[in-house]
Amino acid sequence: GNKKHTRQTSRWNAFVSKEMKLRNDALPLGVPRPKVNDLITDIRDVWKAMSKEEQAVATEDELVRLAEVKDMKKTAVHHVSLNAFHDARATLASVQGQMEALHNRTGLEILLVAVRSDSQSVVVPQVWTTGDRVDEFFQLTNNMSIADFAGKLECFCLSGMQGTANTYHNELMQLKSKTSKLIYNELVKIALPKKVGRMLYDNFKEHITDKYGIVVMNWPLPQFVAPGTIGSRLELQTLYNAWSSGSTYFRKFTRDELEIWEQQCSLTGGSPSGSTAGETSTVSPGNQSPAGDSSSAIPAGIPSSASSPVSPPLNEPGPSTVSPQTGVFSVSNTPLVGRKPRKQRSDKGKKRGPSAKSRAKQASENVPAGDGASTSM
After folding, report:
1. Are strands 126-129 and 249-252 parallel, antiparallel or unpaired?
2. What CA–CA distance (Å, rounded) separates 233 from 170?
3. Dist. CA 28–CA 41, nearest whole Å
4. Phi first, then psi: what are they for 114, rounded to 5°?
């Protein structure tokens, strides 16, 4: 087979390496080190001025050292964590020096915290501040030192729990958004050709049922609220599955049913079938006529004076069975009652007299100037 021949290090390369090391070591600490390209011209001039014997003597030791380094790279085990430690230490020292100089120039206060996120790393938590004010502020506001904070941050980064809380919160928010969009899209489709701006859960009857003749069937949750206000992921998932499977849906009244609905609302003050606020009608699905019955029997609770009412499909409530407050039915086919309205004040609409403060002020203004004043002799 073909053998791969390793290229030998030339004396020129050894001389360049030696000269760069000598020149960089001669520079004081903190001075930027020049690159090979910056010094290659000077090094070349020195090299050309030397004889062959001088070149051999100057590079003998460097050739041996470079050969040992090359052999070590072939056989030695690479300590990645150790290399990372040296890299982190050198980089952080350089950064701290730059920040210290920046603080001295501008007076900026700086806090630096560096911790490892890999258990294989040997880097210890690094904390650096520009002064005591930063330490005192952190202690006062967080009730812990910066060193304790760095230790807790390292534990969190090493625990593998990054993003767990955010993941649950994001999934919950996405499920809320997805459920809200699904319900709104279903409302838009059934309301055609009319356009619905948005889905309103509070006062659903006034905004949706009365206006568009639409009710909600088989609402799976005990309360009729917007998905965005539900904090339970289980309830949100149940609601989303009910709408996506079609078990919960919108039902639209026919024109005749809507007229009957409006008549009953006007006759009973907004409560169909004579129900009062907080009460609901209880017309069972068995009272409805089958979908194929040509007689179209009038659902219970609808005034008999209505002309040719159209019966709803089997097992669906007619307009007389819709909740007077929500227009929403649960999975048990019973209307959900909305929130109890606030009790009206007994003096609502009555003209109120002046307050006690106003009466006292008016009385003081009506007192004659001479009254209550002492007379002098």
Report:
1. unpaired
2. 11
3. 22
4. -130, 125
